[in-house]
C-alpha cells in the first residue's frame, strides 16, 4: 500500500497523468482508502514540487504538468470518498470553493477542496475566475454555510474584498462565513476586509472550517 502512495507521489512530481490514472485505478480496484491515497500520495507530490519551485529547482511548466496530474487523480478518487461513506454519512457542512474573478490558478483550490471533502464536507467547486455573484448564487442554491475564495495574485486579492462587500450589499453577510486563502494573502488582509478566517495551508483550511461550522 505504501508503494502505491509513493508511486502516486512520484507520478505527480513527474507530471505523468497516465501513471497517476493507473495508480489511482489500483486504489479503486484494491479498495485502498482514497483519503490516504490523496493525502499520502497526490498531495505529498504537489507539496514537494511546490517546495522545489520555491527553491528554484523546478519551473512553471513542471508545476503546470504536476497540477494536471494531481487533478487527474483527484477527479478519480474524490467521488470514491463521497460514495464510501468516508465522510461518515451526513456531511459536516456545505462549502462553496472557487478562485476569484481574474484568477485562473487552481492548484491550491483543488487541494483544499480535496481535503475538505476527505474531512466530511460537501464541497461545491465553482472553478476559476468567478465573480462574487457566482459564489453567492451557488451558496444560495445548495444552502451552503461557508464560502472559500482563493486568490494567488496580488492583483486579484481585491476580488476577495469584493465578495464580502457584495454579500453586505445583498444583505446576506450574516448568513455566510467567508474564508480566504492564497499566496499573497495574510491574516492582516483578512482582518482588513472583514473575512471570517484566513488559511495559509490546506490543512489549516480544514481546521478553520471545523471552527467556523461549530461556531
UniProtKB/TrEMBL annotation:
Belongs to the methylamine corrinoid protein family. CDD domains: corrinoid_protein_B12-BD. This is Methionine synthase. The gene is metH_4. Its EC number is 2.1.1.13. InterPro entries: Cbl-bd_cap (IPR003759), Cobalamin-bd (IPR006158), Cobalamin-bd_sf (IPR036724), Met_Synthase/Corrinoid (IPR050554), Meth_synthase_dom (IPR036594). One of its GO terms (cellular component) is cytosol. One of its GO terms (molecular function) is cobalamin binding. One of its GO terms (biological process) is homocysteine metabolic process. The lineage of its organism: Bacteria, Bacillati, Bacillota, Negativicutes, Selenomonadales.
Amino acid at each position: 500500500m505504501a508503494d502505491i502512495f509513493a508511486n502516486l507521489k512520484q507520478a505527480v512530481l513527474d507530471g505523468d497523468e497516465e501513471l497517476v490514472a493507473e495508480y489511482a485505478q489500483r486504489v479503486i480496484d484494491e479498495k485502498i482508502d482514497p483519503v490516504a491515497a490523496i493525502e499520502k500520495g497526490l498531495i505529498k507530490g504537489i507539496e514537494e514540487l511546490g517546495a522545489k519551485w520555491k527553491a528554484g529547482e523546478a519551473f512553471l511548466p513542471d508545476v503546470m504538468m504536476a497540477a494536471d496530474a494531481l487533478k487527474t487523480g483527484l477527479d478519480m478518487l474524490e467521488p470514491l470518498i463521497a460514495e464510501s461513506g468516508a465522510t461518515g454519512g451526513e456531511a459536516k457542512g456545505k462549502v462553496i470553493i472557487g478562485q476569484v474573478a481574474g484568477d485562473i490558478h487552481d492548484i491550491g483550490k483543488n487541494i483544499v477542496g480535496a481535503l475538505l471533502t476527505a474531512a466530511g464536507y460537501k464541497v461545491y467547486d465553482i472553478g476559476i475566475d468567478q465573480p462574487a455573484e457566482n459564489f453567492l448564487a451557488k451558496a444560495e442554491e445548495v444552502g451552503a454555510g461557508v464560502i472559500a475564495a482563493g486568490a494567488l495574485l496580488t492583483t486579484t486579492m481585491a476580488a476577495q474584498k469584493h465578495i464580502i462587500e457584495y454579500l453586505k450589499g445583498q444583505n446576506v453577510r450574516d448568513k455566510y462565513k467567508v474564508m480566504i486563502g492564497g499566496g499573497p494573502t495574510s491574516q492582516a488582509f483578512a482582518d482588513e476586509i472583514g473575512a471570517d478566517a484566513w488559511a495559509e495551508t490546506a490543512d489549516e483550511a480544514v481546521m478553520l472550517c471545523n471552527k467556523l461550522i461549530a461556531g
